[in-house]
Amino acid sequence: MKEVDTDSNSHAACICPIYCIVPPHILKRIAEHGNANQKSWAFRTLAISEQARGQRQAVGLIAALATTSTGTKRRTVYDARNSSRLPGTIVRAEGGPKSKDPAVNEAYLGAGTTYDLYYKVFGRNSIDERGMRLDSTVHYGRDYDNAFWNGQQMVYGDGDGELFNRFTIAIDVIGHELTHGVTQYEAGLEYEDQPGALNESMSDVFGSLVKQYRRRQTAKNADWLIGKGLLASGVKGKALRSMKEPGTAYDDDLLGKDPQPGHMKDYVKTHDDNGGVHINSGIPNRAFYETAIRLGGYAWQKAGQIWYVALRDKLRPTSQFKDAAKATWMAARELYGNGSLELKAVQQGWSEVGIKV
Amino acid sequence: MKIDFTRSGGFAGMRSAVAIDTENLPSTESERLHRLVEEAGFFDLPAALKSTAPGGDRFQYRVKVEEGTRRKEIVADEAAVPERLRPLLDYLTGWARASQKRKTV
Ligand SMILES: [Zn+2]
């Protein structure tokens, strides 16, 4: 697909005279309803005018923006060669040739699709909204059954081959990890209890949207599974989580049963996993699914937009589930208006999981 | 020596755990565990090893050790695990997996 750097660069160059004239509420409308390019431009202009109002080094910021080209991916894939040293050795840089190593290509491609979803659909300029590099390390550790975001980059283990395959195998895992970065720069949700479960849920929501976007699947046709393909053959399960039916992803002698609840009445109280952040995320995950399925079409177009605005503008580090319900409701009202179908879908989505807006 | 070990969290959010009484182990294994606990300086560790850096999907460890009159429980974020504790955690992680496997036999 063709990139549109030159266009957005020229916007950035003449940003000052424009932001002085276009009032913020119009910018906001463009930011919300324009095409990807317009959105990105309006977002940045809004950011600048807010900075300028706060008298915070507006000149330096504009200079910085003029050199940061929107829509330019800067991916680097490193190989840790089974050590736990980060980032490791560079094995593929932006525009570089394909590797013989599938993990390298998956990490590269997955980061690209995630970048595209954020840029083209939500008008976001990378993880930090300022063109941040997308760094990934593959082959981390030995038989390492995990993938994580360390605050600066994505890290993928090979899995042990007996229970887990390599973690780059599922593109939603990549979208999930990158979204931890977005959350870090936006809502900053604490990684514990309900705020932590919301942090996890946001990563699953946008991770799943990355997969749906890549496959051009509607909400109805998507499988809403997280980490399909990750469980090794012989393990009884289809994936690690199900957003549609939390608690049904696996049931295996070795791994046990998927512990996710899909309703507030089944909320799990535990000291493990920072208060069950990967467990209770099933509740907001299902609220998103229930909203998206009511709205129909591509989930990233409406439900995704609503959740993105909530993550960017409304959620706070200590937000609870009910705050998230309110945040998405407010975002839907701003985007689609009072009495809209979208607003109603959000309300019903949360109501399905026992949370009243 | 008695050890209770749990690893939770990670992308998969799966819990794996094992309880070991070194009395029931072959002497080589028992000696190895005693050595790893000593080398970790386990009884001098803070009760909570918390990482303040942002991030997501790291493992969380909970380890309880009882030996004679000494008794200690720690909770450690993977990102905050000191180098000297790592070998003990890796060893116990292996035990937890092995004991999960035994359930199926
Ligand atoms: Zn996560």
Top keywords for this entry?
heterodimer, A: 357 residues, alpha/beta, Elastase, domain 1, five-stranded mixed beta sheet, two-stranded antiparallel ribbon, 13 helices, 9 strands, 9% strand, disordered N terminus, B: 105 residues, alpha+beta, 2 helices, 5 strands, binds zinc ion
Structure description:
The complex is a heterodimer of chains A (357) and B (105). Chain A is α/β, with parallel strands linked by helices and 357 residues long. Chain A contains 13 helices and 9 strands. Chain A has helices at residues 5-13, 15-21, 24-33, 36-53, 58-67, 102-121, 171-185, 193-215, 273-276, 282-295, 303-314, 321-336, 341-352, and strands spanning 75-79, 89-93, 134-140, 147-149, 154-157, 225-226, 241-242, 251-252, 256-257. In chain A, strands 2-1-3-5-4 form a 5-stranded mixed sheet, covered by helices on one side. A two-stranded antiparallel ribbon of chain A has the order 6-7. A two-stranded antiparallel ribbon of chain A has the order 8-9. In chain A, a hairpin with a 3-residue loop joins strand 8 (251-252) and strand 9 (256-257). Mean pLDDT of chain A is 87; it is low at 1-20 and 48-67. Chain B has helices at 27-39, 86-104, and strands at residues 2-9, 16-21, 48-49, 59-67, 70-77. Chain B is built from 2 helices and 5 strands, in the order E-E-H-E-E-E-H. In chain B, strand 1 (2-9) and strand 2 (16-21) form a beta hairpin. Chain B has 105 residues and is an alpha+beta fold. Chain B is globular and about 40 Å long. The chains are: A alpha/beta (357), B alpha+beta (105). The A-B interface holds A 145-151, 164, 167, 173, 176-177, 180, 183-184, 188, 191, 199-200, 203, 227, 230, 240-241, 253-256, 259, 271-274, 277-279 and B 6, 8-15, 53-60, 62, 75, 79, 100-101, 103-104. Bound molecules: zinc ion (ZN). Zinc ion sits between chains A (176, 180, 200, 203) and B (11, 56-57).
